[in-house]
Amino acid sequence: MDSVHASKENKRAQRWYKFFVYLVLIILAITIVVPIAWVFMASVKSNPEFYGNPWTLPKHFEWNNFVSAWTTAGMGRYLGNSVFVTALALVLLIIIALPASYVLARFKFIGQKFWNGYFMVGLFINANYIVVPIFLMLLGGDQFLQRTLGSTFFLNNLWVLALVYAATALPFTIYLLTNYFRTLPQSFEEAAYIDGAGYMKTFLSVMAPMARPSIITVILFNFLSFWNEYIMALTLIPGANKTLPVGLLNLSAAQKSAQNYGQLYAGLVIVMLPTLILYILVQKQLTKGMTVGGVKG
């Protein structure tokens, strides 16, 4: 009787636990979905509708808000700048971090512990804390070029901004990829060597494809970081070649003073939409990359 009673109590506790977990998940989903849905709804409202109940549905869709935000407010140009900087930074990051991570994880060489420790230290340095030294270095480079060549290069340059993004993301990326490569069995490399493949071919044809879930995770995390980055973009791009977060701030200030809230929320949608689409596309691969290591051999 005691065992039956204990079994019933255990099942009851499990039901309450599941109920609590589902309740928390539903509350979290509501707190995330409702603000996003409200921004989308507000982006197609006419300006007079903002002075009534903010939760009322729009009477008709004001798609001109997106047209005005894209052309008049310059969000289309800012979007192109963000796409260019983010894509270039991700390409540079993967080209540098992937082979570096593989070498650190698989080979023994002089200075290996130093480089592992060097990148580990980089994990504890927030890029926003070193934006002033970076700015001063680039400013000094521009001043030197101005004196010698009569032109500047480093500041207000999207290529340089992408390079800075990639450099500041290297510690986290190398740390994550190195740990993933360490979980992969060496039998695959041994089989490739027996078939006559060299180190480079083994890396490109065997090991890099096996690290695909981890690479996708790295790309998504860094994409979100680069896409939403504000402080470095504001500091290193003082001219007109602004990225979306900086351009959105300018749009926010302009439209608030003009009391044109439709364009403001349309600009917010333009900023959010690429990240939402990317997350939907790689959701399964992201989950796999975060939970699956390698099969131990």
Q: Which key phrases capture this entry?
A:
BP-dep_ABC_trans_perm; flat; disordered C terminus; 297 residues; MetI-like; mainly alpha; cell membrane; 13 helices; single chain; MetI-like fold
Your description of this structure?
This protein has 297 residues and is an all-alpha fold. It has a single domain, classed as MetI-like fold (Orthogonal Bundle), CATH 1.10.3720. 75% of the residues lie in helices and 0% in strands. It has 13 helices and no strands. α2 packs across α12 and α11 runs antiparallel to α12. The two termini are 48 Å apart. The C terminus is likely disordered.
Q: Identify the CATH homologous superfamily.
A: MetI-like
Radius of gyration: 25 Å
Order of helices and strands: HHHHHHHHHHHHH
Q: Which percent bin holds the helix content?
A: over 70%
Shape: flat
InterPro entries: BP-dep_ABC_trans_perm, MetI-like, MetI-like_sf
Keywords: Cell membrane, Membrane, Transmembrane, Transmembrane helix, Transport
Main location: membrane
Protein name: ABC transmembrane type-1 domain-containing protein
Task: Give the gist of this structure.
It is a multi-pass membrane protein. The chain is mostly helical. 75% of the residues lie in helices and 0% in strands.
